[in-house]
Amino acid sequence: MADTSQLTSGVAERYASSLFELALEQGAVEVVTKDLDRFQAMLDESEDLKRFVSSPVFSADDQLKAIIAISEKAGISGFFANFLKVVARNRRLFALPGMIKAFRIIAANQRGEITADVTAAHALTAAQETELKAALKGVTGKDVAINVTVDPSILGGLIVKVGSRQIDTSLRTKLSTLKLALKEVG
Length: 186
Known about the structure:
disordered N terminus, 2 domains, Peroxidase, domain 1, alpha+beta, 4 strands, 13% strand, globular, four-stranded mixed beta sheet, 8 helices
């Protein structure tokens, strides 16, 4: 069976690249980024919207009508609204989360930034985010944009992924290591 994650990734990257090129030509990268953030926030908050986006059950017409209504209600217009219509018309809504992620990566690369995925046990304060960005900039030599995910199951500390590197200082990992060490002793 074909690897659908690879297919989704390729589709997402192509669409995101096209959107970025158009936005760059028109000087609208910042506006599109804000619209992307607004739409991503809606996806994060609504299980129904997530199901709608990922479901192949709805027809292209139904998806198009719903995306137009959602865009208008959220105040999304211009390039990103038109982009959403094209995605819905082409029955590619399932790849939308990947498109948003790919667009962010492309935009960050254009600005000379890299992105770090950070998992924390609780939400970071603005001061903690600033300190983390400064520390990561010292290590990487580039400006760092961070995507923070809250996962209480790590108990404390952080898990930071930058490119292919991962730094895991979570309490859960430290406790697991200690548990293994104690098993070897006893």
